[in-house]
Amino acid sequence: MGELLTLESAKQIAAYKAVDEYVKNNSIIGIGSGSTVIYAVHRLVERVKEENLNVICVPTSFQARQLILNNHLKLGDLETYPKLDCAIDGADEVDSDMNLIKGGGGCLLQEKIVASCANQLIIVADYTKNSQKLGEQYKKGIPIEVVPMAYVAILRRIEDNYGGLVKVRMALAKAGPVITDNGNFILDWHFPRDISNWDKINIEISMIPGVVETGLFIKMAKKVYFGMPDGSVKEQF
C-alpha cells in the first residue's frame, strides 16, 4: 500500500473532483469559506485557463471574496445573481444523514444564504469530517450567530431547553468576543451526545428572537466529497 495522504492532500483531491464534476461553462458558482475551498478555487483557476470557462463566483465571506479577487476570477454578488447553479463549500462535520455543522470559521450566515440560493450545495472535506453522528469528530460545538444584546438570554435559553454548555466564542488577536462579518457574536453550543432530532431543534433555535442563524445545515447538501487517506474520494449523497 502506498503512503497515506496528508490532510491537505485529502482536502485537495476532494475539492478537485467536486470542481471537475460540478462546474460547467457559463455558470454562477457560490464559493464557500475555509481551508478546503482554497483547493477548489485553485482547480477553478486551472480550468478557467485551460478550458476558457466563463464562471462568475459569489463569495460567502470576506475571506472567500479575497480568494476570488486574488485569483483574478470574476466576482459576483447575490444582488446581481440571486440564483446560483451550485455552491461549493466545506463543512466542520457531516453525519450519516447529510446533516452538517458549519461555522467553525465564523461565516455561517453568509454561507447559508449563498447555499440557499444555489440549485445544489456541494460539500468538499477531508476524511476527519466524516461522522455517523454529529459531535463524534467535531468537538467545538454548533455555532449559532446572535445579535450581541441578546447573547446571554439566548445562551441561557438553549442550555435550559436542550442541555449542554453554550460559550461565547472569544477572539484570539483581540480582547473580547469574535465579531462576525455581519457585526454579530457567535455562541458555540456543546450539545448533549444523545440528541438526534436535528431538524426540529434547528427550527426551534432559529425561532428564538435574537438568533440570526445556526451552523446546522439540515437537508441542504446534495453531495459530499471526502478525500480519504488512501487517495480515493468517498462520495455521499
TrEMBL record:
List the CDD domains hit by this protein, alphabetically.
Answer: RPI_A
Checking InterPro entries in the record gives: NagB/RpiA_transferase-like, Ribose5P_isomerase_typA_subgr, Ribose5P_isomerase_type_A
> In which pathway is this protein known to take part?
Carbohydrate degradation; pentose phosphate pathway; D-ribose 5-phosphate from D-ribulose 5-phosphate (non-oxidative stage): step 1/1
Please provide, in alphabetical order, the Gene Ontology terms of the cellular component aspect for this entry: cytoplasm
Enzyme nomenclature, EC number? 5.3.1.6
The GO terms this record gives for MF are:
ribose-5-phosphate isomerase activity
Q: Which Gene3D superfamilies match?
A: 3.30.70.260, 3.40.50.1360
| Keyword Isomerase listed | yes
Q: Which domain of life is it from?
A: Eukaryota
Q: Which Pfam families does this UniProt record tie to the protein?
A: Rib_5-P_isom_A
The name this protein goes by in its record: Ribose-5-phosphate isomerase
Q: Which gene encodes it?
A: 550767
